[in-house]
Amino acid sequence: GDVYKRQGINAEYMGMTDDVLKSFSKILSTKVSADIIKECCLIIHNYAIGPSLHAEKLVSLGAFDNLCNILINSNDSSVKQEATNSLTTVVSGSTAGNLQEMLKRDLVLKALCAALDLTYPEVLAHALLALENLLSVEEIAQYNPYATEWHVVGGLEKLEGLMQHENLVVSERARKIMDTYFYVPAKEEYQLKDKALDSPKN
Predict the structure, then answer these.
(1) Separation of alpha carbons 164 and 150, rounded Å
(2) How far is Cα of residue 10 from the mean position of the Cα atoms in its chain?
(3) Which of 6-20, 45-59, 91-105, 134-148 has the lowest mean pLDDT?
(4) Could you tell me if 165 and 174 are in contact, meaning their C-beta atoms sit under 8 angstroms apart?
(5) Is the pLDDT of residue 131 over 60?
(6) 68-82: per-residue pLDDT in tens?
(7) Where are the alpha helices (H) located in 18-95, listed in sequence order?
(8) 17-68, pLDDT tens digit by residue?
(9) CA 172/CA 18 separation, integer angstroms
(10) For 43, which DSSP code?
(11) Which residues, 6+ apart, have CB-to-CB distance to 99 below 8 Å?
(12) For residue 130, what pLDDT band results from cuts at 50, 70 and 90?
């Protein structure tokens, strides 16, 4: 507890059992008030600040998937903001193996794409950093399947728009992702687009 307190983390979140985490995860998937959803997101965020094992538990127990579904389906921007803060904290606290597990679930890139519709610069910057972390799981090569999936879910256009954002952190982060994962030589451009078009849409 003392270690977490020195790091600015409330120690009460560190000892949560799997059953407690499952209960919070269940709340995220039920029809309750926006305030309750936001409170659950905050609790998950604080828990995810801890060791990487916490992020793994949030993925394996379903809380991460429910955060993704909130981002994809909610029309409440304040709820989406809290869900984005929680989701990006889970991503930032994850090992490479846990990031790969997230990507297998076919929700996280759709969720981050939805998060880029928000208007808060700090939230956008966190979402972009989470996207960068996820895309970096696959070694940069001629073809990155997760970059292609991002193209399929409509994220490329949003990145292009954010490159013009007035907030310097947001615009530079978006540009870095574009330069690293999406700007390919002209002769390879159509191959990337063809692979994106051939990928199945859910």
Answers:
(1) 19
(2) 23
(3) 6-20
(4) yes
(5) yes
(6) 999 999 999 999 999
(7) 18-28, 34-48, 52-60, 63-73, 77-92
(8) 888 888 888 888 888 899 999 999 999 999 998 888 999 999 998 999 999 9
(9) 39
(10) H
(11) 91, 133, 134, 137
(12) very high
- Which distant-in-sequence residues (6+ apart) come within 8 Å of 28 by Cβ? 37, 40, 41, 63, 66, 67, 69, 70
pLDDT at 144: 65
Cβ(86)–Cβ(48) below 8 Å: yes
Q: What is the predicted pLDDT for the residue at 118? A: 92
Cβ atoms of residues 199 and 149 within 8 Å: yes
CA 37, CA 83: separation in Å to the nearest integer?
A: 9
Tokens read off for 187: 């002769």
Sequence-separated contacts (24+) of 179-186 with Cβ below 8 Å = 180/132, 180/135, 180/140, 181/135, 181/140, 181/144, 181/147, 181/150, 182/147, 182/151, 182/156
Alpha carbons within 13 A on the beta-carbon side of 65: 12
Amino acid, res. 202: N
**pLDDT of res. 83:** 94
Which SS3 state, helix, strand or coil, does residue 61 take? coil
47 residue type, one letter:
Y
Nearest residue to 1 via CA among 12, 10, 11, 9 = 11
